[in-house]
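Translate sequence into structure tokens.
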Amino acid sequence: MYEQIIDLIKPELEKVIDFVQKRLSSIRAGRASPALVENIQVECFGQKLPLNQLAAISVLNPQQLLIQSWDKSYLESIEKAIGREHPDLSFAADKDGIKINLPPLSEEFRGDLLKVLSQTENDAKKTIRRFRDEAWSKIQKETRSSNIREDDKFKAKDELQDLIDNFNEKIDKLIENKKREIES
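Result follows.
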């Protein structure tokens, strides 16, 4: 019975990891990466679409990206979206597309990025704790209702904590890798 409760939160915990990965990929760490802009929402055709559905994004060099729109009519919308999402980036449109120049990271900007990393980590771990608390509450409720034996309750607690520790380690690794990228 408790296994089902634990199994129900696993997909939610995976979503937390996916969120962290997407969030970290959009944080600039000194090198140009398509992930920096690919999920920017661009208003086009009366709806919002991710940039990677409207254009090809490539790395010209470690400090420059090239966005080649599938249709030239998207360029103005793409420029507005980039300016809105990343006001710190300089970019220019020409016949080849939009070139984004990434300035070198200043110490102040690195510090700001590290704060964003810390906030992302805290938010993710808070969400994981919430799922753990919900599962543990359900396990205790089922124990009081005699659907889970007292011995199994403690086994469930250990298994639940192992699962939570595993996901917290994944978050720690993701954050640590991004920190190294930013600091190098």
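Note: The longest helix spans residues 107-144.
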